[in-house]
Description:
- 75% of the residues lie in helices and 0% in strands.
- It is an all-alpha fold.
- Helix 4 packs antiparallel against helix 5 and helix 10 runs antiparallel to helix 11.
- The C terminus is likely disordered.
Amino acid sequence: MMSPGTCIHKILSCFPFLIVLTDLQYEGAECGIHAEVDRHLEMGKKLLAAGQLADALSHFHAAVDGDPDNYLAYYRRATVFLAMGKSKAALPDLSKVIELKPDFISARLQRGNILLKQGKLDEAEADFKKVLKSSPSQQDEKEAMTQLKRADELQRLITEARKAYSNKDFQTAAVLLDNILESCLWDSELRELRAECYIEQGDLGKAISDLKASTKLKSDNTQAFYKISRIYYQLGDHEMSLSEIRECLKLDQDNKQCFSHYKQVKKLSKQIESAEEHIRSGRYTDGISKYQSVMSTEPNVPYYTTHAKERICHCLSKSQQVREAINLCTEVLEKDPANINALKDRAEAYILDEQYEEAIKDYETAQQNSENDQQIREGLERAQRLLKQSKKKDYYKILGVKRNANKKEIIKAYRKLAQQWHPDNFPDEKEKKAAEKKFIDIAAAKEVLTDPEMRQKFDAGEDPLDPESQQGGGNPFRQWNTWQGFNPFGSGGPFNFKFNFN
């Protein structure tokens, strides 16, 4: 049996061997980890060369996770980010490379170039100066010197641009910023400044373009979304305005400025949508009421007032309120002479008012501004036919009613005239003959205007009782023009009238 001292002696004698064995196991595990990282780096390199960026990125992610101190893993991942156009993601990786390996010139050059594009010129200059102090290659030295000079020039141009903007010389400021943004294309602040110049010059399309770019460069740019929404609102595009202001509220639902504007745009949009729904359904009185509300909701933006009046003019024309339609359309056209919709609606109102020459003028003006509009072409042809027709027989004039008269009004007018011009009222043979002709015209007018199909043809400029205007088609009423030796008040004609005179 061993003594305790002997046991302790034997254990202590094995201790160095145990330490060596543990070290070997750790070293083996570390070698395994490094081998796995190297495998990911090699696979990522091959995939990057093949242009398979997403797959390459996955391997470099794994390499970074496997060895957080491997500067090469960060550098290669940054290279993939840059190839994918994700400079924001590349920048932290390049900074990590420089932290792990301060003399890595390529990483510092790339970081300097990104910082320059972001408009962070002081930081970019610091990187380029350190490259020049690090014994760079001839090519790297040349690039660093060129970029350092460019950064210095950009500093000067930015100072000039800001001064021009402060002096309200927006055109000069915009030109300078054009030059600056060719190099600092990822600078959101400078893009917003150029957008302000465009707004002051009235070039709102370019302003929107710069502001939209700014929202992508700066992820929480609520102010840019607000400005875009305001511009669309001023342009009359309430739907786009609503869409952009919602983006602002997604970033910050408590933003008071955005929420206030959102409520205004939402209210206006609902009123316009409701008005258009009424118009589509033929409820023109309700459409007029809603567009009057639109003008009350937004009296300060000219577009909405003009648009509301244009649509009210349409409703008035459609509901055959002729004089009101003509007056309001004229008011719209005084401010916007090329307004196609107002021209068409006023032309239709002129037709209802039997001012065919005026209708033709409006349709011709509209056609000059919209040559391929079929509705304008058809309207013009109809107005020309009606003008030609008006110089012949006009059934509305015969009965003394307006073109928008209803059936009840037409029959009432017919009965009154039929009583007045009945041939039995004229004992003189000559007067009787004239009365017969007049009576036939009155009866014909009543037949055409109380028959929906015939009235529609007549309103389109075609006389359904005139064979010459039938364009080759059959005329079910041709007997009107083919009677010979008839007595229209006896049993041989198409009429059999009986009146009870009080």
